[in-house]
Amino acid sequence: MDSVNLEHFLVVGAVLFAIGLYMTLAKRNFVGVLIGIELMFNGVNLTFISFSRFVESAEPLNGHIFVIFVITVAAAEAAVALALAVLLYNLRDTIDVDRMDLLKW
Amino acid sequence: MEDTGAVVAFWILAAITVGAALGVAAVRNLIHSVVLLIVSFAGVAGLYITLSADFIAVVQILIYIGAIAILIIFAIVLTPRAGRLNQEGFMFLPALVLAALVAGTMIFVAFDTSWAISEREGFEDTATAIGDLLLGKYALPFEIASVLLLSAIIGAILLVRPEGAEEGPE
Question: B interface mutation test: which of A65, A80, A87 has the most B CBs within 10 A?
Fold first, then answer.
């Protein structure tokens, strides 16, 4: 059986990122857009960890540190974005991004 | 990674992760979508373990499954009349094309580049080393992250606080 190397993990990360990108751009529900963003974060984090494991480096654990900060910022982003979703729902009774047209002229 | 166990684990976990992620985009009901998202997060945590990133795997389960997925479920159930349909808007086709192009480009680059592959074995006990780095070399970003989290919490509370709640109980 073939061995598993860096390219395999990069492909999984790329596919996760692409699915997240598609959801972020195409979904009408605001929560669906946020789910897409979380999937993109996961694809990027997986890529960081695979490089950290496989690629030659003086300090290979820096990739892990970067992932910890990405997760921290993702948590802060999720809290604020979901608060915005609830606020928008209270104002307009919808979280459909196609109907968020307050700034349109 | 040469041994059969790691190879089998990688293929199973990769299939779970990517299959669940495709399901997240495809299913009609948002609640089902979040459940599949949790499966996908768990698959990524398993992939971290095959990459010998034990601490990151635990953090992934605690924060992504334990906090972010639960937050998303809260947001869905707090917006009951908004509908739980997971359908696409008018940008469906361009988004699909763009996502396919991005995935194709990244996969091409991944196979085309000759990465500087190291021969070292997997990490052992990453938690100690990460703790040393976070409180030593990366102490400043670590402190800034705490300020960011605090401001995010305060911002989230301020945003969803009901009107007329300026005065606390006397």
Answer: A65
